[in-house]
Design a protein that fits this description.
By secondary structure, the chain is an alpha+beta fold. The protein contains 26 helices and 11 strands. Bound molecules: zinc ion. The site of zinc ion has 5 residues, from helix 19 and helix 21. Zinc ion (ZN) binds next to helix 19 and helix 21.
């Protein structure tokens, strides 16, 4: 199972994200708006992102231990400091064994205990590496991967447990494409200089890990080249990121017998039995990958398979080991792939891992201290206002028939709203945390995660579960649950502040709420019904009109470029762009109902509407390193921040009115050419 979350991995929420550091500007907090960050020499209608953020972009520097900088990053930095205070207190106190404080405190202490970690070197890996070295053929390789309790399915099987798209009350085991170490398939085939550099650095990285675990450098290099060749063969069968977005094309329900026929060299019954999975029905998102794997397994030399397993095992655990391993991993994933000059401080990495592995324990302590019932109440009111605004937009749509509208409104009214933290916390009683065993603690948490997941297979879905932890600066929509979710971590300044005026809150968190609501009706979300089932509830003519509008959005974003003419992928980013377009419109409608919007009173020299758009643009002020930007253009379903601001505004008449956008301005489009979906 591929549980590892590399630095660049996309999440389904509002953005993706590395670790962060701090910037503080008290003037921002007092007026909730940063005048000094604007560049008023730019015409708002030419480039609103730069009008609102130009001076900030010019004057701010991405910290050395970061891949990017901006609002999300500074808030994450704040949250990490809060987390640190909680963890240090928990680590220093005397808590009863098995208590929440003992587990998170000792986990953090074990990760900070570098004396023990350095002394151990790679000792924690030796038993498992010996097992891998003893494997005789590919059948034993399959059995080994299935038997691994901390990583079921190992290096070559991607698997997870979740609702069946066509029967959303039932959990199933789902297999998806896997086996690659680089961000996506194109990294194995593209011949431009940047990609070639990444591949060369990847080979050096594998070589370095093998050298660190006792292989001589010539043999290590040969192993590395064999692994790259094997992953390249697997990559041929992979779908590109944009092709993974179609829920129908990526849905295949198969019996074990059908799967055996499709992939004859993988004996699925015995594979599933070894994993302790009894089911006879599985979902396979990308069968093409498993067909390729099945034909490659017998023809690949056993030592290449062993090398692949060993490399993945070391890489998967490198950050838990002594500094040569930590540095090797950072040099490749951090420095080369993301352009980050320096490793972040150790406490930040260990705090991040505490959140990853004990998220709902840490979360309990976090919300007790940093999230109030009043904030939850205020947020719920905002969400309800946004939902009302969305309702009347749907009622007014000129392109949708009354039949489809009726079903859309049923779906909208049926949305579950989760705010702050879960009502019911997960049980971690089978996780053992010792103060001097960082490696063992993580394995215990991983075994727990898998047991918890596997217990759900073929059982009823529990809709109270959360997919993010409370301290996260993010939000998400889950069409299978027909829900929108806002962790406590994002419900703070600059996204949300109880003392800020409505223009600021609606432009910031209001737009985020509208964005998540729209996800349930974007090109993917619209295919799910009120119960979270993948089922077509659209009148054909309405679906055709939606698709035509969506294609306009694809074309609009296909024409945006970053760096040296690197084009955005309008198909990959379609869902996010639709959510940005809808989110802005809904948030502005909701804002229009407030007293401030009706008052026309200027603050900081701006009308309420101007302030709404400026607040919106400032929340998205983000700078990203070129290397990281390059990876994101290939794998991130979100557009770069500049286009998350300018893209929607180009299609929005109230923005034109607020800033007097006219023909000749670069963002100007005649109203007939503007795209309005929701
Ligand atoms: Zn989104």
């Amino acid at each position: 199972m591929n549980l590892q979350k590399p630095l660049w991995l996309a999440v389904t929420g509002i953005l993706l994200f590395g670790a962060c550091r701090k910037e503080k500007d008290e003037s921002v907090r007092t007026t909730f708006f940063d005048n000094s960050g604007m560049d008023t020499t730019i015409r708002p209608g030419n480039d609103f992102f730069s009008f609102a953020n130009g001076n900030w972009v010019k004057n701010s520097k991405i910290p050395e231990d970061q891949t990017g900088w901006g609002s999300f990053y500074t808030l994450y930095e704040e949250n990490q400091k809060k987390t640190k205070a909680i963890l240090e207190r928990a680590a220093s106190g005397d808590h009863s064994a098995g208590s929440v404080e003992q587990k998170v405190g000792d986990f953090f202490a074990s990760g900070m205990d570098t004396a023990t970690i350095e002394k151990l070197g790679y000792d924690p890996l030796k038993a498992e590496l010996a097992k891998i070295a003893a494997l005789k053929d590919y059948k034993q390789v399959l059995n080994y991967m299935a038997a691994d309790e901390a990583n079921r399915g190992g290096a070559l099987f991607g698997l997870g447990v979740g609702p069946d798209d066509r029967q959303s009350t039932l959990n199933r085991i789902n297999f998806y494409q896997s086996g690659l170490s680089l961000p996506e398939k194109d990294y194995y085939f593209k011949t431009d200089d940047e990609t070639k550099k990444v591949r060369a650095a990847f080979v050096s990285y594998i070589t370095r890990l093998f050298t660190l675990t006792g292989t001589d450098s010539t043999a290590a290099r040969k192993k590395a080249e064999g692994i790259l060749a094997f992953e390249t063969a697997l990559a041929k069968s992979h779908k590109a990121p944009a092709d993974l977005r179609d829920p129908i094309k990526n849905y295949h329900k198969l019996t074990v017998a059908e799967l055996n026929k499709l992939t004859p060299n993988i004996e699925w019954r015995s594979f599933l039995n070894t994993m302790t999975v009894k089911t006879d029905t599985v979902l396979v998102s990308q069968p093409e990958y498993y067909q390729a794997l099945s034909s490659l397994l017998p023809s690949t030399p056993i030592d290449v398979l062993q090398d692949k397993l060993a490399f993945n095992y070391i890489d998967h655990n490198a950050t838990l080991l002594s500094s040569p391993f930590v540095n090797a991993k950072f040099d490749f994933f951090g420095r080369t792939l993301s352009g980050q000059p320096q490793l972040s401080e150790r406490w930040k990495r260990v705090a991040g891992n505490t959140d990853t592995y004990l998220g709902e324990l840490l979360g309990q302590l976090w919300v007790k201290e940093y999230f109030t019932p009043e904030a939850k109440e205020r947020m719920l009111t905002l969400v309800n206002n946004l939902q009302k605004a969305y309702r009347s937009r749907i009622e007014r749509l000129d392109w949708m028939s009354p039949e489809t509208k009726k079903t859309a409104l049923v779906k909208l009214d049926g949305i579950t709203k989760k705010i702050g933290y879960p009502d019911k916390w997960k049980d971690y009683s089978d996780v053992t945390i010792k103060r001097n065993d960082y490696f063992g603690n993580v394995q215990s948490a991983r075994r727990h995660d898998i047991r918890e997941d596997f217990a759900k297979i073929d059982n009823k879905v529990d809709r109270s579960e959360w997919g993010m932890t409370p301290p996260e600066v993010n939000a998400y929509a889950n069409p299978s649950f027909n829900e929108i979710v806002f962790p406590a971590g994002i419900l703070q300044f600059p996204f949300f502040d109880k003392d800020a005026d409505d223009a600021i809150n609606y432009g910031a968190i209001g737009m985020v709420i509208g964005h998540e609501l729209t996800h349930l009706f974007d090109d993917q979300g619209r295919q799910y019904d009120v119960n979270g089932n993948l089922r077509d509830w659209w009148q054909k003519a309405d679906a055709d009109k939606f698709t035509a509008k969506a294609n306009q959005v694809v074309n609009q974003y296909n024409n945006y470029t970053v760096l040296n003419n690197l084009k955005l992928n309008g198909r990959l980013t379609l869902g996010e762009n639709l959510a940005d377009l809808g989110g802005l419109a809904i948030a502005f409608d909701a804002f229009r109902l407030t007293d401030q919007s009706k008052s026309n009173e200027k603050i900081d020299g701006f009308t309420p509407a101007q302030r709404f758009f400026l607040g919106f643009a400032q929340v998205w002020r983000i700078k990203i390193r070129d290397e990281d930007q390059r990876v994101r253009v290939q794998v991130d379903p979100h557009s770069p921040a500049k286009f998350r601001v300018n893209g929607p505004l180009t299609n929005f008449v109230p923005f034109y009115q607020a800033f007097n956008v006219k023909p000749g301005d670069r963002m100007y489009k005649p109203e007939v050419d503007q795209t309005k979906v929701w």
